[in-house]
Each structure stands twice: as C-alpha cells, then as structure tokens.
Amino acid sequence: MADGIIDVQYPKVQQAIEELMEQTQGIITTLNNLEDELKPLVTTWEGADQESATAARRASRQILDRSGPGGRGSVRRFEDVRIRGRRGRR
Fold it and tell me: Is there a contact between 63 and 55 (Cβ–Cβ < 8 Å)?
C-alpha cells in the first residue's frame, strides 16, 4: 500500500486460491478415504463408542460443509473471489 492505494496482484491471488483449493480437496479426499477404511470397524462398535464415532463424523461433515479453511464452503468462496477478481480487473 502506497499513498492510499492498495496494489492487488491478481495473478498471485489467483495462484494462492488455486493452491488453497487443491489443499482443501486433498483434505476432503483424505477424510473420505479414512471414513471408508473405518466403516467396517465402526459397524462392530456398540453403544457409546458407535455414538461417538457417528457424532465425530457428523461434526467433521458439518465443518466441511460450512466454512473455514478446508471446508467445502471455502472452496465455493475461493471460487467467488476468483470470479469477482476477474471482473474487477481493468
């Protein structure tokens, strides 16, 4: 920032968005793989153990569906920023 002007370098912002989207997708893929691997084990659990596993899975899905780093909501917001950035260029 110089003299009250903010210099946004869109290619750098675009690159950061792309990297965040890739990392986010990697996290989602890892969680999905882990969940798939644990399914047979979790089905053998009973009572509080199974309830805890179900609650943890539900909580992680809610986080991913909402916002914050690593969330699907974030991917949508990153995409939004990318689109708006292209419109704002001169």
Answer: no
